[in-house]
Amino acid sequence: MTGPLVCRQVRDVTHDMKTFVFEASEPALFRHDPGQYLTFTFEIDGQEIDRCYTLSSPPSRPLLASITVKRVPGGRVSNWLHDHLTPGDVVRARGPLGGFSTARHPAPAYLFLSGGSGITPLMSMTRTLYDLASPADVVFVHSARTPDDIPFRQELELMAATAPQIRVAHVCEDDGAVERWDGHRGRLTLDVLRQIAPDLPRREVFTCGPQGYMRAVRRMLATAGLPEDRCHEESFEVPAPAAVKATGGTSFAVRLSRSGATIACDTGTPLLEAAARAGITLPSSCGQGLCGTCVTTLEKGTVDMRPGGGLRPGDVARNKILLCCSTPLEDLVIDA
Amino acid sequence: MSIVTTPATVRPREERGTSRIQDTVARRVVGHSLERPFYTDREFFDLDIAAVFTRHWLFVAVDAEIPEPGDYTTVEIGPYSVIVVRGDDENPRAFHNVCRHRGARLLDGERGSVGNLVCGYHKWTYGTDGALRYAPSQPGDFDPGCFGLKTVHVRSVGGLVFVCLADQPPADFTEVAARIEPYLLPHGLRRAKVAARTDLVEDGNWKLVMENNRECYHCDGHPELLRTFFPTYGYAGKDIPAPLRPAHERYLRTGAELRETYERLGLPYALIEELDHRTTGFRIQRDALDLAGESFTKDGRAACRRLLGDLPTPRLGHLSLHMQPNSWFHVVGDHAITFSALPLAPDKTLLRTTWLVHPDAEEGVDYDPDTLLAVWTATNEQDARLVARAQRGVSSPAYTPGPYAPTEYQVEAFCSWYVARLREELRR
Question: How close A292 gets to chain B, by Cα (Å)?
Answer without folding.
Answer: 7
